[in-house]
Sequence to fold (148 residues):
Amino acid sequence: MQNGAHSFEPSSRLNGLRWFDARRARASGVILGTGLLLGLYAAVILPWSASTLGRFLVPQARVSSDHELVVEGPFQFVRHPAYSGDLALWLGSALATANLLLLLLWPLYVLGATLQSRAEDDLLASKFGDDYRRYAARVGRFVPRLAY
Fold:
């Protein structure tokens, strides 16, 4: 083409951006959509878990003498909905923004959340005994169980 005109072939450049083939564009759309869905999940479950916990929402895991085992709201689906929401938000942000650093650091966040949630599980089991152990056997840590 003459006078600096651009071709619209898949490998050409327009304004410095590379045109993608249809397969790559569909995959990008699926990744972006997955990221947005994870973000939506986080936007729902994080405030829902906080409002369900009410006065039991504290910055550091502890139980009080009048502590009650909360198994309604999002806790009927996952034992640790705040961690579940945080993990979904982190992964969703990494996918939706194609942020490789967030994606590479996400497994470390999963490890930290897993270790912290195990300590919280132990604390709650020490307070509520078999009731908590039955609940933990029935309800997933971060992801709902489809069957138990």
The radius of gyration is 22 Å. The chain has a mean pLDDT of 84. The chain has four helices and two strands. The first strand starts at residue 13 and ends at 14.
